[in-house]
Design a protein that fits this description.
This protein has 7 helices and 18 strands. Strands 8-5-4-3-2-1-18 form a 7-stranded mixed beta sheet. Strands 9-10-13-14-15-16-17 form a 7-stranded mixed beta sheet, with helices on one face. A 4-stranded antiparallel beta sheet has the order 7-6-11-12, with no helix packed on it. Helix 6 packs across helix 7.
Length: 290
């Protein structure tokens, strides 16, 4: 399994665009190919998928520079209904109109970021919902033997406080976003599993609780933003929450953690002090092999 970060907020060692957004490209061998001969393995038995599409078409320029042809992508999974994860969908669909795009049925809601008296729409471009290849999911699904989507995370243990400014507009009123539109991707190959979440708005510990309920064992790799970023300094309560999350993640002794995007550099450094080599920052262009 190969996972390449096509878009993230920070630039790594490669000459690539970096902007506020998230997109990972994944190649995974089909179940049948794991048992084929060398000769038959030369055939096209590799699935290619995207989790999210970044905030703009810059994602596809990065893909080109990294040797990824978006026309070969089999399908896309949207982690949740925010612009910085869905902004590349329309430009992707022009290049690859046949690839199915899976999103939660609630992903098309009217989502806003409130800061004082200012409001900013952060939902998806509504034109996305008019695409013929959109597939709306209610409770996740098993797309194929290698790829599963799950949702329905309702726990609030160590819930990111930065979520409090994120609202849904209903009937002209702002209500707290429940993040029912968030879903998570599990990719399996040769007995190994990778769990990918875009922002972990529902809290990474709650997402892992649901994962453990489903699979009864920890993922080998977890890739996710932790949505701990903050414009100013953290208070002591916020620092303790970040530390507590890092301590609990450290208990998953067989899991490697990759993060970036909405985690924020200060929170990453706090967590890194506790998790050491178990936590890795995944910049634009970085790759993970499993």
């Amino acid at each position: 399994m190969k996972i390449i970060n096509l878009m993230e907020d920070t630039q790594g060692e490669k000459d690539l665009f970096a902007e506020h957004g998230f997109c990972v490209y994944i190649e995974v061998c089909t179940e049948s190919s794991a048992q084929t001969t060398v000769q038959s393995a030369m055939q096209n038995l590799t699935q290619k998928l995207l989790v999210d599409t970044g905030a703009s078409e810059k994602t596809w320029e990065n893909a080109k520079r990294l040797g990824v042809d978006v026309k070969d992508v089999d399908f896309v999974i949207l982690s949740h209904g925010h612009y910085d994860h869905s902004g590349g969908i329309l430009s992707f669909a022009k290049q690859n109109p046949d690839a199915e795009i899976y999103m939660h049925a609630d992903a098309g809601g009217d989502y806003y970021h409130l800061k004082g008296s200012r409001e900013k729409y952060i939902g998806i471009d509504k034109r996305i919902l008019e695409l013929s290849n959109i597939r709306l999911l209610e409770d996740g699904c098993r797309i194929n033997p290698q790829v599963t989507v799950y949702s329905g995370v309702t726990g609030r243990r160590k819930w990111p406080k930065s979520n409090l400014k994120l609202k849904k507009k209903e009937g002209g009123e702002y209500v707290q976003d429940s993040f029912s539109h968030e879903q998570y991707v599990v990719v399996e190959e040769n007995g190994k599993r990778a769990l990918i979440s875009g922002c972990a708005h529902n809290g990474i510990l709650n997402i892992l609780d649901k994962y453990m309920e489903i699979y009864q064992s920890a993922p080998d790799v977890l890739i996710s933003g932790f949505h701990m970023v903050k414009g100013g300094d953290y208070n002591m309560e916020e620092i303790k929450l970040i530390q507590d999350v890092a301590k609990e993640l450290s208990g998953f002794t067989n899991t490697r953690f990759y993060t970036g995007h909405c985690t924020g550099a200060p929170a990453f450094l706090i967590m890194k002090e506790i998790m050491k080599d178990r936590l890795i920052y995944m910049h634009t262009g970085d790759a993970v092999y499993l």
